[in-house]
Amino acid sequence: MHSISQVEGSFVDVEGRYVIVVGRFNHHVVDSLVEGAVDSLTRHGIDAGAIDIVHVPGAWEIPLAVKRVLEVARPDAVIALGAVIRGGTPHFEHVAGECNSALSRLQLEFDTPVANGVLTVNSIEQAIERAGTKAGNKGIEAAMAAMEMVSLLRCFGDEASQESDS
């Protein structure tokens, strides 16, 4: 009988370079996300010198900065953090949807984890809840996802990245 093999990442083999790309808009919420992400990375053994933070105006600008970071810095993972809060216009749907779609495409294009910690919420209260109060801290969750994916991809070796380099 054939046994089912399972592969998953851990939080042990996570060394490397991490870049956090942060949208400053709604900074009163986003600052807590950044603190949570940095704290999570350093608690898991990532040296503070291996963490870079790139600031952009808002969520709309995050994907372009992530793309440039992936092209130039070639980190082990990128963590995107920001907050898009619904208003009375369709602007929310456009910004949130395009940001999410672009981040997903970039991680596939560059074969590098891009953790999405961009909050898309209906109110400032919901944003505050997800930035470290009732609903946890989505910056911590994004950092944990980034580290787990770095570890998981290492389970498959460097063959994929070597193929894309040739």
Automatic annotation (TrEMBL):
Annotated Pfam families: DMRL_synthase (PF00885)
List of residues binding (2S)-2-hydroxy-3-oxobutyl phosphate: 88-89, 130
Enzyme class, spelled out: transferase
Enzyme nomenclature, EC number: 2.5.1.78
UniProt keyword terms in alphabetical order: Riboflavin biosynthesis, Transferase
Catalytic activity: (2S)-2-hydroxy-3-oxobutyl phosphate + 5-amino-6-(D-ribitylamino)uracil = 6,7-dimethyl-8-(1-D-ribityl)lumazine + phosphate + 2 H2O + H(+)
GO biological process, alphabetically ordered: riboflavin biosynthetic process
Similarity field: Belongs to the DMRL synthase family.
Functional note: Catalyzes the formation of 6,7-dimethyl-8-ribityllumazine by condensation of 5-amino-6-(D-ribitylamino)uracil with 3,4-dihydroxy-2-butanone 4-phosphate. This is the penultimate step in the biosynthesis of riboflavin.
Protein name per Swiss-Prot or TrEMBL: 6,7-dimethyl-8-ribityllumazine synthase
Organism: Halomonas cupida
Record lineage: Bacteria, Pseudomonadati, Pseudomonadota, Gammaproteobacteria, Oceanospirillales
